[in-house]
Amino acid sequence: MKNAPQFLTAIxxxxxxxxxxxxxxxxxIESKDSKHYIYVFALVREGExxxxxxxxxxxxxxxxxxMVVTAxxxxxxxxxxxxxxxIEMFTEAAIDAxxxxxxxxxxxPYRVM
Length: 113
Fold this sequence. Notes:
Order of helices and strands: EEEEEEHE
Strand content: over 45%
Radius of gyration: 13 Å
Number of domains: 1
């Protein structure tokens, strides 16, 4: 996927099931480039290997935060508050974005790890 977060290593912190999708929240990320990822949320459709959505929280050199939502060939960046550096707050925002983008309002996300 074009514009997907590029990283060398990451540790899974949370896993969720949302309807026909599985999601993982990654932390302790070693980036391939100059970006400083705090967390990356990756959403994968059941039966597929590659994520169909990424939500990344980045911290800039000026200590600002950006949330970057990437789906297919599109990427959109939003200013974000430092509150999203809390894994629970980030996960809630990322799940909300995924549910809106994939019209999953009838699904109940549940944590599996």
